[in-house]
Amino acid sequence: MVNEIDVKKIDSIVMDKYEADSENLLHILQDINSEYSYIPEQGMKIVAERLCIPVSQVYSVATYYKALNLEPRGRHVISVCTGTACHVRGAGKIIEKIERELGIKAGGTSSDMKFSLQTVRCIGCCSLGPVINVGEDTHGRLKQDALPKILKKYE
Amino acid sequence: MSYATIEKLNSLKESGLKRIYPGRIKINVGMATCGISTGAGRLYDQLLEELEKFKIDALVARSGCLGFCQIEPLIDITFPGYPKLIYSRVTPDQLSGIVKELADGGLTGKGALARVTEDSSSVDGSMRDYPLTGIIEGIKDIPLISDLGFYKKQLKIALNNCGLIDPDSIEEYIARGGYYPLYKVLSGLKPEEVVDEIKKSGLRGRGGGGFPTGIKWETCRNAKGESKYIICNADEGDPGAYMDRSIMEGDPHSVIEGMIIGGYAIGSSQGYIYVRNEYPLAVKKCRIAIDKAHECGFLGENIFGSGFNFDIKISRGGGAFVCGESTALMASLEGKIGRPRAKYIHTVKRGFRDSPSNLNNVETWANVPTIISRGSGWYKKIGTEKSAGTKVFSVVGKINNTGLVEVPMGISLREIIYDIGGGIPGGKRFKAVQTGGPSGGCIPERLIDLSVDFDELTKVGSMMGSGGMIVMDENTCMVDIARYFIDFLKDESCGKCVPCREGIYRLHEILTGICNGEGKEEDIDLLLEMSRSIKMTALCGLGSTSPNSILTTLEYFRDEYEAHIIDKKCPAGVCKALITYTIDPEKCTGCVRCAKECPQEAISGEKKTPHVIHQEKCIKCGVCFEVCNFKSVVIN
Lengths: 155, 636
Ligand SMILES: Cc1cc2nc3c(=O)[nH]c(=O)nc-3n(C[C@H](O)[C@H](O)[C@H](O)COP(=O)(O)O)c2cc1C
Ligand code: FES
Description:
The complex is a heterodimer.
Chain A: H1 7-17, H2 25-36, H3 41-51, H4 55-64, E1 76-81, H5 84-88, H6 91-102, E2 115-120, E3 132-134, E4 137-139, H7 147-152
Parallel strand pairs in A: 1-2
Antiparallel strand pairs in A: 1-3, 3-4
Helix pairs in contact in A: 1-3, 2-3, 3-4
Chain B: H1 6-20, E1 25-30, H2 33-37, H3 40-53, E2 58-63, E3 75-78, E4 84-87, H4 92-103, E5 112-116, E6 118-120, E7 127-129, H5 149-152, H6 170-175, H7 180-188, H8 191-201, H9 213-222, E8 229-234, H10 243-250, H11 252-266, E9 270-275, H12 280-296, E10 311-316, H13 326-333, E11 357-361, H14 362-374, H15 376-380, E12 390-397, E13 403-408, H16 413-420, E14 430-435, E15 441-444, H17 454-459, E16 468-473, H18 478-492, H19 498-515, H20 523-537, H21 541-545, H22 548-556, H23 558-565, E17 581-583, H24 593-597, E18 603-604, E19 612-613, H25 623-627, E20 633-635
Parallel strand pairs in B: 1-2, 8-9, 8-11, 9-10, 12-16
Antiparallel strand pairs in B: 1-3, 3-4, 4-5, 6-7, 12-13, 14-15, 14-16, 17-20, 18-19
Helix pairs in contact in B: 3-4, 7-11, 7-14, 8-9, 8-11, 10-11, 10-12, 11-14, 18-19, 19-20, 20-22
The structure holds flavin mononucleotide (FMN) and FE2/S2 (inorganic) cluster (FES).
Flavin mononucleotide binds near residues 236 and 541 of chain B.
């Protein structure tokens, strides 16, 4: 699946919202990332051109930060917390269970583009560990056998 | 826009008090991330609907987190003439019952966790009680909140307002003494006097290193530079610590006010809050708070008519742990890759945009208004001689009462784990507590009477870090924990210096080998030697503290390493390669639950007869162990 790049949309982020200031590069890329679920290559080129910086600089920032993706992601992003509190309470088993349920590995996206699976080190809900986020919903106090039901809720 | 005045402040306080103590029914629903994830959002909607249905006149508000996250969702209700009642683990049915009680004109107190007869605020030292109309049967038997083990030893300064006020209401913040400290500063103190007060208070940075805040401010104030910057480190990267999130979600104004005061003290007119990418709600709450502070004239130009200008911007991080480090954070703020640099010149002299920049942690900033208001003398008396004040800890992991606790420094680990935390669940043995995040270490049971402050934690090889305390029981493998942290740091190393980039990678290889039963006897010495050299040679704090988890576990739990290496056993039953799951035929009732859940169809047996796990098919996912109601699955 290839998203059409809307130059106007990217321009409105770079030029209008962030006033073509390269100090805002990270924020610009974050906005593009949430618009497209990833940063399309062409998007990076447009950003570089508008900010008058090399594409390599845009690329280096885009690959450095975990919040930015270079591949399209599924409609729902599952983030399994692997922070310390969740780790000691069995986060490893939770992630393996989801991997088995969806047939993908952490970092992957299901072929129907429904789910992407990633790990995150602590989402600040440590007292309810193990915890996962699906999109913006947080599910805590998890056990392996509760997962299929939770995943079913998402279309 | 006209600037803020003391009259305006007083009138905002009046309206705030009317919101907190409206003289009619007041209901607070705890709606921080922890509350929402346990269903508080749905309860909130249900509450509004049912109040409407019964035509009950009540003021409903969303508050932050009271700290006792284990028993979320939390709701508190004040009925005129009653003490405030707190309900925990509220279910929709229970909520309907409570609304019916309200409709009948009172509260029975059934199912309430605690009652509150007075609210105190450490910012202004005020005490406000809930005027009672006689003693109501049933209610007086509910324990006072201050008598609950979880709260008894706590003293709230940074968490003063968390869970008590609506974070979106600047009036409620002011009603509890907020923005008066700023007025005090701008109406009568010189910047040097403010710096002096913070210096005398003994406040040390809560973000990890414990650097004296007043000295940092003074150096930044004295540094040469046309523009100076105030930065709030809200990157909260230590896994297992979430006090900064809670403060920003529950009491953002305390951070903002601290930053404005800091700006005045060092001579800066621009502040930044660098917030972790994973905290969307905190970003939202800070945005709202900044807008409100603008509207009231506490941010912007000519604050309180003093001629002092200050503004705050929010910057969202990109999800890189190392960006919590000061130089990396500032590079990231500039839109660059967040890689640390060597600190020959400190950021207080040349930081963000090559200008003097003063970086403090969220909790550090949140302490500032109270110190200004109550005075350094008052503050210094709390805590220990070299670690003044309180510290917020997130007590999590294998412990009964998980949550955020704020205690005077110097309290013993035992008090935190047993008196406040309520001990270890399931009658298990306490084994260790990990503090300081990936830079910290594991403190064993025998040091449980350690007094907790910056220096004592460092002495035993760990550190304060941002205040995460991850409690571990007999089923936690210490080699696995060391590998866990090294794995974390391997992913987060920015790759700039060799000791960190390569060294951590190799440490990880060795530890993984040990966990997989491939450890060699000389591995322990190799780990020690590499740890020492990484400590000495890494560029930034991430690398130089990275071996701490190995060094402390090796010092205190060497026998566990030896069990893995020599006996090829994981005593805690965690490392997959070294364990097997079997079913105890004596205990198995043949309920077939495990066989149904097993993803590998590795469990067989007739109904009502003991089942068997076929080892060649078993992938050791542990589902059978989790679902068995008869504890018949055993780990060998
Ligand atoms: C790898 C690394 C990560 C850090 N992460 C954080 C963090 O998430 N939050 C924080 O406040 N300080 C963090 N620090 C400490 C900061 O560098 C800095 O010392 C602190 O923010 C200063 O504020 P304070 O004096 O108020 O503690 C980190 C340091 C290192 C070396
Ligand atoms: S460790 Fe999982 S939410 Fe913090």
